[in-house]
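Reviewers of the previous submission asked for a worked example of the structure-prediction workflow described in the proposal, so we include one complete record here. The input consisted solely of the amino acid sequence. No template or homolog information was supplied to the procedure at any stage.
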Amino acid sequence: MRDRRSFVWLGLFAVGGLALRIAYVLTTKNPRVIGGDSFYYHHGANLLVDGRGFPDPIELLQFHHEVPGAAHPPGYIVALAIPSLFRLDTFLDHQIWSCVIGAGTVFLVGIAGREIAGNRVGLVAAGLAAVYPNVWFYDSIVMSETLILFTTALTILVAYRFAKRPSVGYAVGLGVSVGVAALTRAESILLVPLLIVPLVLWLRGPAMRRRLQLLAISVGVTVLTIAPWVGYNLVRFEHPVFLSSNLELTLLSANCDDTYHGPFLGFWALRCGTQFTPPKGDASVQARFYRDKVQDYVGDHKSRVPVVVLAREGRTWGFFNANQQITIDQIEDKELNTSRIALGMYYALLALSVAGVVALRRRRVPLTPLLALLAAVALTVGFVYGTTRFRAPAEVPLVLLGSVGVDAVIRRFCPRLHDRRSARARQERAPSTDAAGVGARALRILRPS
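From that input alone, the workflow returned the following structure tokens.
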């Protein structure tokens, strides 16, 4: 009964999160001018349903030039194509569908919290995920962060179940979840060396041979999950393209004088990415041209690279030019007041996460699934550039660690509340001693098999 009530509450938090997201869309983001990545995802989904495959939507619809598109992996496009199959293909339809995915994230975060540290942590985590702006904002603008938050929560949940009950089934599930995350945001492929490898090799109990078998299964399933997209790209482009073709242009925009010095240190500058005229050809040809320009610039400014990397990390994690960064975030249609609330909640979660890490260490709960995601974000932004949006995959582990921190505070400073709840849980788990309970047990014993 306790578990049933807990699931009901998680469902209510998900419904509440859905209501909040839809209300935000209808009151602040509808109608909305569609551009940039939102344009790519929205129209890419509709082109896919129309049988056009994966062309570049911007080149096709704005410049009437059909070329293969892989500026972004296909995960979110495929997710948006689901409502488009049923003729729910307007931008508002895709916003609402993204809100539904966001509500699913709330539920998954709650389930993951339960798996990590019990019912109370799960409920706190679901409540935080429902109202934390850095989790729900992206649903309104149709960006891939919506799906990466969902796949991140799924990956954490499967990783903890695998850690508790190592099996082939959970090894397959872990590989699939990491593969789907990589098909949503290419940098998630870092979870193979950062999450899968250490999680499997550090298992307690199974012999090394068994661990190596499970590792091979999980990594192999990840490769199989992304293989169709990689193979599709290898035959479409002149030069090899794997998960996406947009990295080099992004790097060019993040490695120039405007981002190595001055007020935009550690960020990116559009002017830097448009100052060169790329050669004619598909995205792979242009990517090779941009890559050479990036290598030339970084090679000539090696002494500034450590400073720039620190600035990128500081911007992403809120410790360098935080007020300027949330002002810049308005470029992505994020209101300044929303960003201020999100920044305040983020700092609180960060502080609570420290307590959460300590609590989980004392309980000997593995931290690898949570810390691996933080490390993946840190490596990504250090290599690319710093911005709040790139922190999205880390928001889920921060919510979970912060929820464990809340639970630790309750245990430390409200022992009566904790003891009362613990006693009630023990009582509900204990066998009944009243007449009805004894009679029911007797009937179960005497009932013929």
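The two ends are 26 Å apart (CA to CA). We consider this example representative of the routine output the project will generate in years two and three.
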